[in-house]
From TrEMBL:
Its EC number is 3.3.1.1. The lineage of its organism: Bacteria, Bacillati, Bacillota, Bacilli, Lactobacillales. It comes from Lactobacillus gigeriorum DSM 23908 = CRBIP 24.85. The keyword Hydrolase applies. It comes from the Bacteria. This is Adenosylhomocysteinase.
Length: 187
């Protein structure tokens, strides 16, 4: 956890949401156990990818079966403290995309996300928090992609200016995806 803490400590927040979430993540790291595994049922680390085309005009999104909305790719750390490894694995599993690059080794975004209770693989998962670290990834929209039927029912490159019409989670679009769109303009 020392490397994760150092990376989060180094991160420069983009806005008030990130400033507050960074502070809370650091507190969680310093005071709570098992943040890298789902053994901590209240809060645990996840990693997401904001995957953009080289011209930054499209973003790769999956239609998430649980949330019934287009969403970024990502997943749980599940004990792996190498977050770049975690997100690389998740991108390949969720989209079939194998040729992509990290625009930077540094964290691109931080957010603490609420997860409502839901059914996953036949069992109820209680509401909890995802302490999420996001990386900026670039890939070619012409490369082959595929769905992962147990998690998503579509995967598509969506023009950034059409994203609002594809995301059914209003809070998520307004607070997370719009922030990422704005950050790309400055990157």
């Amino acid at each position: 956890m020392e490397e994760i803490r150092a990376a989060i400590e180094k991160y420069q927040p983009f806005n008030e949401q990130e400033e507050r979430d960074k502070s809370e993540m650091l507190w969680q790291i310093d005071h709570v156990k098992d943040l890298l595994t789902r053994k901590n049922r209240n809060a645990h680390f996840t990693v997401s990818a904001w995957i953009v085309s080289p011209d930054r005009k499209q973003v790769l999104m999956a239609y998430h079966n649980i949330y019934q909305s287009f969403a970024w790719l990502g997943g749980h750390a599940d004990g792996d403290a190498d977050f770049k490894h975690v997100i690389s694995k998740e991108i390949q599993e969720e989209s079939g995309l194998t040729d992509f690059k990290f625009v930077s080794d540094d964290i691109f975004s931080l957010e603490i996300l609420t997860v409502d209770g839901h059914i996953k693989r036949g069992s109820y998962v209680s509401s909890h928090l995802h302490l999420n670290v996001t990386y900026l990834i670039e890939a070619d929209p012409e490369l082959p992609i595929r769905i992962k039927p147990d998690e998503n029912s579509a995967i598509a490159w969506i023009p950034v200016d059409e994203l609002k019409n594809k995301v059914n989670e209003v809070w998520f679009y307004n607070w997370i995806y719009q922030k990422l769109i704005d950050k790309i303009k400055q990157f």
